[in-house]
Amino acid sequence: MNVSLTNVDSVNAIIQINVAKEDYQEKLSNALKTFRKKANVPGFRPGTVPVGMVKKMYGKSIMAEEINKIVGEGLYKYIQENKLNVLGEPLPNEEKQQPIDFATEGDYDFFFDIALAPEIKLSLTKKDKIKYYKIDVNEELVTKQIEQYKANYGKYDKIEEGAKETDLIRGVIRELEDGKVKEDGINVEAGIVMPSYMKDAEEQAKFVGSKAGDNITFNPGKAYEGNETEIASLLHIQKDQVETIPAEFSFEITEITRYKEADLDQELFDKVFGEGNVKSVEEFTEKVKEIIADQFAPDSDYKFLLDAKELLEKKAGDLQFPDAFLKRWLLTTGEERTAESLEKDYPKIIADLKFHLIKEQIAKDFDLKIENEDMKTIAMQAARAQFAQYGMMNLPDEMVENYANDMLKNQDNARNLLDRAMENKIIDALKGKLGLDEKVISLDEFRKFFEKEEEKAGEEKEA
Predict the structure, then answer these.
(1) CA-to-CA distance for 292 and 135, rounded, in angstroms?
(2) Average pLDDT, the chain
(3) Which residue among 135, 226, 369, 451 has the highest number of C-beta atoms inside a 10 angstrom radius?
(4) Which domains does the chain have, with CATH numbers?
């Protein structure tokens, strides 16, 4: 088999593959023998069909399959060995490619169009200045986070005073009939209500101010009107039974509990940051400040990369793209894409592709590689960030690692984490290579950057 490349221009080329008879004869013979063993032909037992008959009946399709395998392997081997930076996938050349007749054995020529990524050269120095915005972790942010920890790690305490709207009221719920407990009616021993969840103000008022030992007559259907799921859960019945429940139930209160925020003490310090790691309010406050700063760092890095994008694109200059090929490939691979929609989307596609290629070039220039340890680290960070959203800060490494491993088992998650890990390395490389002009701004000021981006995106979408 002979493979050769002809450059049409700097971003378009044609690969020609010549498959000689000797390239496929042995594979074809073995494929026919393998097929013969399982061929189901009337009048013959499996494995006894003459090879000549198999070849006559199925030889054309078997040969086509084997030659296509050889061509595919040869095509991608050539691309890899010659380190061709191709865009999209090779497509059959529409002019040079002649129809192939696999009915007769002979030599065959295959022609494929390929798109080559434009060459990118970036000359970066410390003279190239980029602003790096650090978000100010002020007292207000720290206080809010501490209040959040206190709320997350609080607990319900039993109270003797009258209930408030946000208290949990526990008791026995019984179905009533003519004002009396109905025999064999609905009976819930461990009923729980929170008045603030009730939609009807009149029903809610029946529970506000109540105490343990009180017996209240209420209407669940009215209290939670329109929420069949809530009613079914309260009465321990199926949703389809909700419509037939009576209007009156009794609620005999056995206990009222009120949520109390955690105190700012050693118990809270240990729950948030681990036993003994923080020993004073001052240390706790400083640790919280560090946590917030770490949470903001990726946002600052992301803004930095967006700002660096403009500089990098300017450094790369005007890049030539194989537009005709890319449009043809995008139409071929996009099932829901039309020629009209492609023309509309193409400028955005090329803009994204250009920056993608620039990032690839940076990775190449700085010899950036993603190792298994990098994937483990980024997955652990993502796992801890997810747990942190629910106030779960001080989790054992083993638990987080198991969760991270599960994330990596999902191919889509793994691909996204790989991209994130590489982007982090690119950002670090650029921060070390470019001149950073650091500026500390408030969170509100920082958010305004992205409000402008959203407005701009919305205007572009409308246009």
Answers:
(1) 10
(2) 90
(3) 135
(4) 2-116 (3.30.70.1050), 129-146+270-462 (no CATH), 155-260 (3.10.50)
